[in-house]
């Protein structure tokens, strides 16, 4: 399995995964509609790898264009990142999210089926666990979703499970990420969110670089040691390597398999601020704000299954995540622009 299509390959996790695929001698084709990303990320991946990547600006809702792509290339498998991912926007525009994420995935699966391409790694999310009562979370926890974005991920998981059950020739890996942060050590590719960031790390780095005045910490009255929410932060390069391991697993024809990608350790918001300040000698001004609806107090992964079955384990520390994120931000204060 050497020829891989990466949907959403110019995004944050997608671009880092493309770089790892190239380093592991995969032939990679990238498609993206560039709605929430920039082609510059792929240009930098090419420069870092000293390799060319075929790129096609295609939206998954454009099924004829998608079919044309599969007619042009003979893919062995697909890594599927493409989708809208802002929780707040999903609450405001649920129909947009259901149409884009679910219909787009249905189109992809139909075209894959028509072309007998039945190896798929799907970019899922820890949001499928909803608002958990306890952590660490295993892959066997009950599933729910507290916002439309999470519901699209959960619905797609159910679709893929039904698809594989109906046709055992499919081999599908569902990867549930926890909180990817950091950037490539070069500082040439990283997270470039539009507008005010939804996630903690880019919010911190934009405060540190002076783009934003201060960090809003949502909630300081959770039942945690310091009152702030606890999450499982994982370096984006560790997440990218997880995709390489998932592709290797599909060679064994495992049917449908599900893995958490995290560190197995929880860190609070204040822990993350402290780690960032220690790693980079930069002060982060912050203020406490009310809790956000649907935010869990504690959410971190049990990653023993991925360690056991994929021979994968996150290796980067919180300090390294903070260092690499700051390196990216200082080199690119306005992102890829």
Which structural traits does this protein have?
337 residues; alpha/beta; 7-stranded parallel β-sheet; 3-stranded mixed β-sheet; 11 helices
What report would you give on this structure?
The chain has 337 residues and is α/β, with parallel strands linked by helices. The protein has a domain at 3-183 and 233-263: Rossmann fold, CATH 3.40.50.720. 40% of the residues lie in helices and 18% in strands. It has 11 helices and 14 strands. The strands form 4 sheets. Strands 3-2-1-4-5-6-11 form a 7-stranded parallel sheet, with helices on both faces. Strands 12-9-14 form a 3-stranded mixed sheet. The chain has a two-stranded parallel sheet with strand order 7-10. Strand 2 (27-32), helix 2 (40-49) and strand 3 (54-57) form a beta-alpha-beta unit. Helix 1 crosses helix 8, helix 3 (63-72) packs parallel to helix 5 (94-114) and helix 7 (200-208) packs across helix 11. It is globular and about 55 Å long. 47% of the residues are buried. The mean pLDDT is 96.
Layout of SSEs?
Elements lengths: L2 E5 L4 H12 L3 E6 L7 H10 L4 E4 L5 H10 L4 E4 L6 H6 L1 H21 L4 E7 L22 H19 L4 E7 L1 E3 L18 H9 L6 E4 L11 E2 L1 E3 H15 L5 E6 L5 E2 H12 L5 E4 L8 E2 L4 H7 L7 H14 L6
Parallel strand pairs: 1-2, 1-4, 2-3, 4-5, 5-6, 6-11, 7-10, 8-13, 9-14
Antiparallel strand pairs: 9-12
Helix pairs in contact: 1-2, 1-8, 3-5, 5-6, 7-11, 9-11
**Mean pLDDT, rounded to whole units?**
96
Instruction: Give the H and E element order.
Output: EHEHEHEHHEHEEHEEEHEEHEEHH
Q: What is the CATH architecture descriptor of the domain at 3-183 and 233-263? A: 3-Layer(aba) Sandwich
Low-confidence stretches: none
Report the major sheet. Answer: 7 strands, parallel
- CATH topology of the domain at 3-183 and 233-263, anyone? Rossmann fold
Give the strand tally. 14
- Helical residues, percent: 40-55%
Q: What is the number of helices? A: 11
General shape: globular
- Percent strand equals 15-25%
CATH homologous superfamily (4th level) name of the domain at 3-183 and 233-263: NAD(P)-binding Rossmann-like Domain
Sheet with most strands: strand arrangement: 3-2-1-4-5-6-11
SSE class: alpha/beta
Radius of gyration: 19 Å
- The CATH C-level name of the domain at 3-183 and 233-263 is Alpha Beta
- N→C terminal distance: 35 Å
